[in-house]
Amino acid sequence: MAASSSLLLLHKPTCNFHFNSARFRKRVQALEQEAFINNSPVADAGGGIEAVANRLSKWIVAALFGSVLLLRHDGAALWAVIGSVSNSALSVALKHLLNQERPSAATLRSDPGMPSSHAQSISFISVFIVLSVMEWLGTNIISLFLSGLILALGSYFTWLRVSQKLHTTSQVVVGAIVGSVYSTLWYKTWNSLVLEAFTSSFSVQVAVFLVAAASALGFVVYVLLNWFKDDR
Length: 232
What we know:
- The protein contains eight helices and no strands.
- With about 230 residues, it is mainly alpha-helical.
- Helix 3 (about 50-70) runs antiparallel to helix 4.
């Protein structure tokens, strides 16, 4: 009887040790899982109002741009379509030329990050809309208010690229500067060089229309191949 009691006493700590080890392993696994979730790009950028706004930003900006083009329905609108697509092509070329990596958290994106193509495109469109508004309404309280609202919305959408850890601040700033400058030069090129040739030459009108149509078709194909896939 005494021998049995001694064996039980010797066995009890072993059981407690195995029980504590199992509980410790479960606790470690729980902490590792929690750390993985907290550090994952999905947890950082996959939910919340800002993440939804970031996913919708391209659709909102494209809708605004399309609305302005329909309101204009002139040669400048066709010129803007060509400019928007060429601006996107410039962004792709600069990305591969500079070849700067995105933030480490942007694991779902493999292309370079400098400059931000979203920031460059949004800035191009925002500046074009502002210049169109100032052309239509002149300089007054209404046009200044609308221009400020458009620029604020565009700035917010570009900032989301940083808050969602898809780009660094410098990548977004460079993209915004390039897009704004390119849009201004493209708009002024129309008024100073292309407009006179467009109004006086039927062949120039046909050429601008065909290039704009091809650009628009290429943009639609790009949207179908990429935008819907990115939203899934």
